[in-house]
Amino acid sequence: MRGTLVVAALTVQIAVASAGAQPPPPVTLPTPAAGDRAVLTRLNDDYVRAVLESDTARFERLLASDFRNTNPDGTLLDRAAFLAQVARPANLKTLRAEDVEIRILGDTAIVHARTVYETSDGRPGSGRYTDIWHKQAGTWRAVAAHVTRLVR
Q1: 144/110 Cα distance (integer angstroms)
Q2: Tens digit of pLDDT for each residue in 46-84?
Q3: Contact of 100 with 44, CB cutoff 8 Å
Q4: Pick from 24, 1, 3: nearest CA to 13
Q5: pTM of structure
Q6: Given CB 3.0 to 4.6 Å as the disulfide criterion, which of 21, 42, 117, 147 pairs with 95?
């Protein structure tokens, strides 16, 4: 079967070349709506702010019912455990996201970013995170997150 497909593909290429015809243009997929990118940018900003401020009310609205989070130590938390973790003060003075990359793949989006923070006692730190969002009934919800701290 594989050999037949290769021969068929070569036959089509030879036929197109010998007829002097141009091959069809490559298929281009539509780009994600600018509106979705803007919404996801705002949601990412809200998520980071909610971590800094221990804003569980905001997370109640951001997280899907089946949300999972992987902590830097490798523990996997369900939604309820994550909300309990976030409810405790973050021990951070500052937290910001940098180098944010948002990839939209239909009704799923992946956000990669670097974090830079300062702890309450003034120590600097940084990390990376990957959040996965899913558009459910027209609303983006975080379904998974993975957090890594960078060692200096």
Answers
A1: 10
A2: 999 999 999 999 999 999 999 999 999 999 999 999 999
A3: yes
A4: 24
A5: 0.77
A6: 117
